[in-house]
Amino acid sequence: MEGGREGGRPAELVAAQSCISRLEAALQLAQQREAASSAALVEAEAVARRSDELAMANLQLSQRLAESKAEMEMAAYYKKASGVCGELTEAKSRLEEQLMGLGSLLSASELRLADMAARAAAADVGGRGAVGSGEHAALAECRARAAESSIASEVERRCGAVLSSRALWPPALREEVEALEARLAAAEAERGMAVQRAEAAARAEGELREQLGTKTAELALLTQESAAAATAFAAQLQQLREALAESQARVAGLPDDLSRSRAREEASATIAAAVAAPRRHSNGGNAATAPSPPTATAVMTPKWQVQNRVGGGGLYNLDAAFAGDPGDGGNSSGGGDGSGSAGTRKGSGGPSNVDAVYMKNVLFKFLEAHLTNKVQERDMLLPAVATLLQVGRWVVLVP
């Protein structure tokens, strides 16, 4: 039984070590998964930083777009104001020219009127031209009014023609308007590009935010799984380490138990040999003088059933010793190695004092183990007690 335990301890130790190796491999795998989770976290942080950069670029583009819109509005206002100012300036110059022409016409009309007045005066002298001079004055006045109305209509016509055709504008005004239009076209193109960049940045930001959310969820799940796996692996590893320590302690205590058991067996064998030697000598003398009585057949009992590990002393073939005669000591010696007790009867028919002491010792140890609830020790003593009860023809009820 001890040999089986000694053989089982290394197997348990090997199994525990293999289990520890598996758990260490699993712990390594969990650490690798944790490293992968850390790498994923770093990548997610990089994605978040990139998203922040894109958001900042989008904000800057939006600001530039707003500035471009303001510049375009100012350019349109200046363009309109410059056009109106140029038109007004040109119209003013033309009106001035027309006014100068009208002034010259008025001067000519006045000269003609004076001439006509002189002629009328000369006609008055003759007495016949009074009525004719009045008609000439009325006709001159009508002509002056028609000239004024034609001048106003001509001014309006020429102003409309100047406003409708850019070719009639002054060169400086045309250059200024063309420069403003070029700036407006460039601002419009830049605005379109800024809008496209802003839309692309918004799309990229949305994609990055979606990736960041996915990565964050995966990272949280991996972190929870890694934490749970690490906790479970740590608990299993601690249990296996405790079991390994207990197994190592048991394995370390096995040599001491084995040495104590062997010492007890050697002591039992020595005592049994010392007791059996005088008996064999006395039985040999009696056998020379007296006829040998019929001997009973010895029933061999296996060693593991009658070995008293606690109390010491062998009980091999004790039932055969009680079944034989006093002079049959040689046939009742237990085992093939001569290490058991003789266990012979005396002439009175009872066991010897040494055998009685052995029997009492075994019974006391059995009762003590039973009362103190030492199950293993009690089970080990059961075969020896059964042998004693069979030899002594006793009936004992064990509770």
TrEMBL record:
It holds the Pfam family GRIP. Residues 327-350 have a biased composition (Gly residues). Residues 277-300, 327-351 are annotated as: Disordered. It comes from the Eukaryota. Residues 287-300 have a biased composition (Low complexity). InterPro entries: GRIP_dom. Residues 349-399 form the GRIP domain. Coiled coil: none annotated. This is GRIP domain-containing protein.
